[in-house]
């Protein structure tokens, strides 16, 4: 704790720094750095590095050294948290949902957000989540009032160990006045966003060991029905692939999912650069530095911004996520499979991009009769529903004008060249789309393969926007 206070004392001395662009520095970091992530602990030398970063001028060499040591920032930050409601969790959960809230000049949506989390979750889902609310305002009267409201309205969840309310005393914060005014932001705006970065860092630090995964929400959010089940399906579908952040909303710091083991590292990162830029910008750099280059965002969105007034000065903020669907939607199972096609693929729009919940697609040049897009499942499966969508809003003519969907059995060939010998046609594409239900009642065999077959040549290119497969349990299982 003594080292921690010294660290923040040093941070109080921050003044004008080098004119070197922060973004330019990050580019230099990416050029010179080969970051390999391993879990470890914050050594004394790393703590000293944090203190030096807060008091020295920013320069490329120092940033390169700092980011190389980011792999060691896996230890927790020494902070004393006040439990305002709830107690330490008796067991680890699957998902922690974190919210940080401050007093607003206009409106308050925190209670509605908490209500939405619990109401949109089933009894079984509630067993697997923990909700941590950080009241991050320094107005003690406001905090006491909010704790009283939360404890009264959600007493059952507090008693059940699903809801915790915490607060970090002001003494642990750096002085937030006189900070750098990047992007010509007014001083009060810089103070607001810098404190918000510290708020989030403290919240992440607290939640690091509570569950396997963590999702960040803002305090003015509405949730989709059974969002946890949807999140679990997505995580399962990403097994075997590397990711740092999965996004379930395109707005702000809403619906961003992390492995819990990355939270200490992210907390340190936000503290190191708390005054540089808003948190959602810092998160982009964090993801990139940990080698996830592209955004992995899922649609429909699971979380919607519902506030009309920002927590900054009560300014109007009517942003809405137009990909949000509040009613329960069924994310497909898309079981593990090998994907292949004999079509001429355009650039990097490869076959795998159609068999995913992310906002990507397969794009092939004008297909001919007999061309196909094939799926060979790793194990025989029972299918209940299939849905295929071709074309996009921007390229509405790049659809499959004449095609059919078939399922197959009896695999032959080597691992790389496996295919089915027998196929059953389930139907034709209409207006570029195909959908069928009750497949398990129409197909009597376990399905090894599925293919989209072009039945007539077309001059237009073909976009397969999404392939969705829902499975059913085989008999006697």
UniProtKB/TrEMBL annotation:
Molecular function GO terms recorded: acetylglucosaminyltransferase activity
Organism name: Apteryx owenii
The organism's place on the tree of life at top rank: Eukaryota
Keyword tRNA processing tagged: no
Pathway: Protein modification; protein glycosylation
GO biological process, one term: protein N-linked glycosylation
Residue ranges occupied by any MGAT4 conserved region domain in the UniProt entry: 62-324
TM annotation in the entry: 20-37
Gene3D superfamilies: Galactose-binding domain-like (2.60.120.260)
Keyword Membrane found: yes
Pfam family, one: MGAT4_cons
Entry keyword set: Glycosyltransferase, Membrane, Transferase, Transmembrane, Transmembrane helix
Protein name (record): MGAT4 family member C
Start and end residues of each MGAT4 A/B/C C-terminal domain: 337-465
């Amino acid at each position: 704790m003594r080292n921690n206070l010294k660290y923040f004392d040093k941070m109080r001395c921050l003044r004008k720094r080098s004119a070197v662009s922060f973004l330019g520095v990050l580019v230099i970091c990416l050029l010179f750095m080969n970051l390999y992530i391993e879990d470890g602990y914050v050594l004394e030398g790393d703590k000293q590095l944090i203190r030096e970063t807060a008091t020295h001028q920013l320069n490329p060499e120092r940033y390169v050294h700092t980011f190389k040591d980011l792999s060691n920032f896996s230890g927790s930050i020494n902070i004393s948290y006040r439990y305002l409601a709830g107690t330490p969790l008796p067991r680890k959960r699957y998902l922690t949902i974190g919210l940080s809230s401050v007093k607003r000049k206009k409106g308050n949506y925190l209670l509605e957000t908490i209500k939405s989390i619990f109401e949109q979750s089933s009894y079984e889902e509630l067993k697997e989540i923990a909700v941590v609310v950080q009241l991050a305002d320094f107005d003690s009267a406001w905090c006491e009032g909010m704790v009283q409201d939360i404890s009264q309205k959600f007493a059952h969840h507090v008693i059940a160990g699903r809801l915790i309310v915490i607060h970090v005393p002001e003494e642990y914060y750096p002085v937030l006045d006189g900070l750098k005014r990047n992007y010509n932001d007014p001083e009060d705006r810089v103070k607001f966003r810098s404190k918000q970065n510290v708020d989030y860092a403290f919240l992440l630090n607290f939640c690091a060991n509570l569950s396997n995964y963590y999702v960040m929400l803002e305090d003015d959010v509405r949730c989709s029905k059974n969002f946890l089940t949807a999140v679990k399906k997505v995580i399962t579908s990403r097994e075997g692939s590397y990711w740092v952040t999965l996004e379930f909303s395109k707005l702000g710091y809403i619906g961003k999912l992390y492995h819990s083991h990355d939270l200490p590292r992210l907390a340190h990162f936000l503290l190191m650069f708390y005054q540089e830029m808003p948190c959602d910008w810092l998160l982009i750099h964090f993801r990139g530095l940990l080698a996830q280059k592209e955004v992995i965002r899922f649609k429909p969105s699971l979380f919607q911004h519902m506030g009309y007034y920002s927590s900054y000065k009560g300014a109007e903020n009517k942003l809405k996520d137009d990909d949000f669907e509040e009613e329960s939607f069924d994310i497909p199972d898309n079981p593990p499979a090998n994907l292949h096609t004999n079509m001429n693929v355009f650039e990097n729009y490869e076959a795998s991009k159609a068999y995913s919940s992310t906002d990507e697609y397969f794009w092939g040049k004008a297909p001919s009769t007999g061309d196909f897009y094939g799926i060979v499942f790793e194990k025989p499966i029972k299918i209940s529903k299939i849905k295929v969508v071709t074309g996009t809003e921007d390229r509405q003519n790049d659809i499959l004008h004449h095609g059919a969907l078939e399922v197959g059995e009896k695999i032959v060939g080597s691992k790389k060249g496996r295919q089915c010998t027998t196929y059953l046609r389930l139907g034709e594409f209409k207006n570029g789309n195909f959908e069928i239900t009750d497949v398990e009642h129409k197909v009597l065999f376990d399905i090894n393969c599925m293919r989209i077959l072009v039945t007539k040549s077309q001059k237009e290119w073909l976009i397969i926007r999404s392939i969705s497969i829902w499975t059913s349990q085989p008999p006697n299982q």
